[in-house]
Design brief:
By secondary structure, the protein is an all-alpha fold. The protein has two domains: 2-148, no CATH class; 177-388, Orthogonal Bundle (MetI-like fold). The chain contains 17 helices and three strands. A three-stranded antiparallel beta sheet has the order 2-1-3, with no helix packed on it. A hairpin with a 5-residue loop joins strand 1 (50-52) and strand 2. Helix 8 (175-211) packs antiparallel against helix 9 (213-227), helix 8 (175-211) packs parallel to helix 12 (264-277) and helix 10 (231-244) packs antiparallel against helix 11 (251-261). The longest helix is centred in the middle third of the chain and has 37 residues, at 175-211. The two termini are 25 Å apart. The model is unreliable at 1-7 (pLDDT under 50).
């Protein structure tokens, strides 16, 4: 009976979510961003995916840099490269293996084996020009965009053309490659910063709403003090102070700062939901039965406010992506040579009309990202609200 109730709830939720055209626009936008981000090395790469020498020797020159990226943001690159290998294997195993327990074991073993390859990889500087070398070999298969995000392959501010479909940036790097790799930065910052903000907001909001009294008074005064500072101004101040102390403005730091300043709205929202739920009979019966407060909060209350949390998380991802791009545009976020939509748009600051491609294409990607997550969040809100069905 319990399984059928769970199934009917999620089936009904999916039905209500799928009825909205806005929902499918949001999901399509997220997929449009996620696939190039995850499979970026197979789409834009200066090294051949496969090469056969004149002696008949087969090689995959891109593979070493795939497991050991030559990047200042190695953790983010390895995370997405891991997903590029793991997700196709997971899909195949789900189709072929029907036994859940065996499938979970195989997925865990696969994840460990792939992760071991990334841990063992050591970056090696490879300055070989494979595009010139390819003409001397028997066969060379390049990615659709045969340029890496950090390679100087054109003229500064080169306009879009046949060789570079989106043009080049301020020092001649292919803009299409940098926009694709920049989507990795935006998605990583968006999802992980929203996760940090959600964890802090959930802890503060649930503690204030459940314990009430002095705990509520203390935590809510802390939230109100934080609320006095405009969030973006607080971000700028923190990033500026960290820069003064010679702390590198890397992606993990940007994630941490955005996450630690974006939890205030979540705390207010969660507190209100917990106050409403904790007055219901099932919570009171748990209290009378002697169930521990933390077990009540995270085992009983949290599942019942999960809809609100999920909706807030989706909107939080959009806000974090926008914050990261704004910080990078102002020079306080992700630093070059790492590609970011914000620092790409900053390169056109001197003459945005002449360098329109540096404004338009990264700006369009940013628009699609924010719109997609906001559309998805709004569709989830309508799906969880039975009154709107």
């Amino acid at each position: 009976m319990e399984n059928s109730e769970k199934y009917s709830f999620f089936h009904d939720l999916y039905r209500r979510f799928g009825k909205s055209a806005v929902a499918w626009c949001g999901v399509a936008g997220i997929i449009f961003l996620s696939i190039p981000a995850i499979f970026a090395p197979f789409i834009a790469n200066g090294r051949p995916l496969l090469m056969i020498s004149s002696d008949g020797v087969w090689s995959m020159p891109f593979l070493h840099s795939f497991f050991a990226p030559e990047s200042s943001e190695v953790l983010v690159e390895k995370l997405f490269n891991f997903l590029a290998l793991y997700l196709p294997v997971a899909v195949v195993l789900k189709r072929l293996c029907r036994r859940k327990k065996l499938r979970r074991i195989l997925l865990a073993v696969t994840a460990l084996l792939i992760a071991a390859g990334f841990f063992a990889g050591v970056p090696v500087m490879d300055k070989q020009n494979y595009r010139q070398l390819a003409g001397k070999e028997r066969f060379a298969l390049f990615a659709a965009i045969p340029y890496g995000p950090d390679e100087i392959v054109g003229e500064p501010y080169e306009a879009p053309g046949r060789r570079h479909i989106l043009g080049c940036d301020d020092i001649g790097r292919d803009l299409a490659a940098r926009v694709i790799y920049g989507s990795r930065v935006s998605l990583a910052v968006g999802v992980l910063a929203a996760t940090v903000a959600m964890a802090i907001g959930l802890t503060v909001g649930m503690s204030a709403g459940y314990f009430r009294g002095k705990m509520d008074l203390l935590l809510m005064r802390l939230v109100e003090i934080m609320q006095c500072f405009p969030t973006f101004l607080l971000l700028l101040i923190l990033m500026s102070l960290l820069g003064d102390y010679q702390i590198a403005q890397s992606i993990p730091l940007v994630i941490l700062v955005i996450g630690c300043t974006g939890w205030i709205g979540v705390a207010f929202l969660v507190r209100g939901e917990v106050l409403k739920e904790s007055s219901l009979a099932y919570v009171k019966s748990c209290v009378v039965s002697g169930v521990s407060p933390w077990k009540i909060m995270f085992k009983h209350l949290l599942p019942n406010i999960s809809g609100t949390v999920l909706i807030s998380f989706t909107f939080g991802v959009a806000g974090a992506i926008l914050s990261e791009s704004s910080l990078s545009f102002l020079g306080f976020g992700v630093q070059p040579p790492t590609a970011s939509w914000g620092n790409l748009m900053r390169q056109a600051f001197d003459n945005p009309m002449a360098y329109w491609h540096l404004t338009f294409f990264p700006g369009m990607m940013l628009f699609i990202a924010v719109m997609s997550f906001n559309f998805t969040g709004d569709a989830l809100r309508r799906a969880f609200d039975v009154k709107e069905d």
